[in-house]
Amino acid sequence: MIEWIQNFIRNYSNGMYFPHIQIKDIIEILIVTIIVYEIMLWIKNTKAWMLLRGMLMLGGFILLAWLFQMNTILYLAKESINVLAIAAIIVFQPELRRALEKLGEKNLFSNINPFDKNKENQRFSDETLDSIVRACYAMGSVCTGALIVVEQVIQLTEYEMTGIELDCKVSSQVLINIFEHNTPLHDGAVIIRGDRITSATCYLPLSDNMTISKDLGTRHRAALGMSEVCDALVIVVSEETGLVSVASGGRLLRAINAEELRSQLSQIQYRKTETKNKFSIRKGWHRS
Q1: For residue 208, what pLDDT band results from cuts at 50, 70 and 90?
Q2: Residue 279 predicted with pLDDT over 70
Q3: How many CB atoms lie under 10 A from the CB of residue 234?
Q4: Mean pLDDT, range 66-72, rounded to an integer
Q5: Whether the Cβ atoms of residue 192 and residue 132 lie closer than 8 Å to each other
Q6: What is the mean pLDDT of residues 55-62?
Q7: What is the arrangement of strands in the sheet containing 196-202, beginning at the earlier edge strand?
Q8: What does the alpha-carbon distance between residue 218 and residue 207 come to, in Å, rounded to a whole number?
Q9: Which residues are 193's β-sheet partners?
Q10: Cα separations (Å) of 187 from 3, 196, 216, 218?
Q11: Is the pLDDT of residue 276 over 60?
Q12: 168 — phi, psi (to 5°)?
């Protein structure tokens, strides 16, 4: 039996090429695999999926033109390919920018550093966390609308400039006073960096996601839009229902209770848990 197997292998493997694989080849294959996987994920979760579908349709059309020797169409396609590439970069500039920002957020050294547990690694204190939670549900109980942006890695300077600059410690009383009806600062969003409120009445980009429920108003669309262009955690208090919702990564978790909001804030409180938080936050979205 063994001799038959040896003869079989010898007969059918004669002339076949078996490359010599080294460790660096395996590492190179893994790197390319990860890059391709990340690109596919990015394409799936952004408008780039529509771009890819359009490119495939255009490629199929050009293939048909080549098969039937339509020289005019082939000439136009050849001359316009560079213009189309530049146009795609311009049209999808926000998505490309976000992809590069996500790449810059990954900090391998901070994730493997066992001594990274000091106060400097804390984005905001427990007192700030408690103040945000208390303020949100106090405003929700009286149906006072609110929009609070909690900054993470990406600084939100360009959005701060659209509002009124502040520099005050986060407290539930200050947040409630800002969003009180008929006050100068109640319209727009508040941006929180660390333990400080940096700006109020800020304008946020609205989401153009067509799958969003029609029940959601401008505040929720602004929260989703902000979460699509940066890594901030955006908290919304509905003026109509008083319900509290959270937006992150282009996804909305609606009608959460105080413990769930506290959990969401706790997950972004420390920088060393960034990689872990991405999975734990996404796990919660299935509930909505």
Answers
A1: confident
A2: no
A3: 25
A4: 87
A5: yes
A6: 84
A7: 164-169, 196-202, 189-193, 146-150, 233-237, 244-248, 251-253
A8: 9
A9: 196
A10: 84, 19, 17, 12
A11: no
A12: -140, 155
